[in-house]
Amino acid sequence: MTPPPLRLVLFDFDGVLARYSHAARLAHLARVAGCTPARLSEVVFNSGLERAYDSGVLDTASYLQQLGAGLGCTIDADIWIASRCAGTQADPLALELVASVATRVQVGMLTNNGALMLDAIPRIVAPLFPMLEGRVLCSGVLGVRKPDRAIFDHALAQFDVRAQETLFVDDLFVNVQGARAAGLHADTVVDARSMRTVLRRYGVLPTGLGAAV
Fold this sequence. Notes:
11 helices; two-stranded antiparallel sheet; HAD-SF_hydro_IA; single chain; PGP-like_dom2; Rossmann fold; 7 strands; HAD-like_sf; alpha/beta; HAD family phosphatase
């Protein structure tokens, strides 16, 4: 029996469409907060605060309040977004591939990040907007993180497609495994070159496009 054609390609964000530098992000925010990157890392990451926010346990207001309290200063949304942008650089070739795929099937994004990334992502990968407006799903909003099957079920419902009609790409194999367990087609990509290979294999990249990658 011939499988149904793909209708949606879901892309991860960090490590797929953009390169994330944890050190650069910490350095930027530490300068604003007047502390060392090590202190910032302790407050944000070692404490579990960031994971709680990415998981939807904390809303944005509570997250920023606890972050500021831990650092002894005020961190608002604009400061947070500026530091995230400082630590994240779009991959232009990957963005070209996404735009090419969008001429054939639906595209969307599924990322393990908190709700503030809904404002940061359009700044980081601006060429994909407004095409991706309303098509970015964050774990902090959905209340569940990859690789949990529930997040993929949420995504399928959001885009009104079946698992067999969806391809998911991520730089972490554990997330790919989660997607496959939910019935999606899924593969690991680590750069634009490997992304092009996967997209061509699944027949969602228009012929002749992406050849320069």
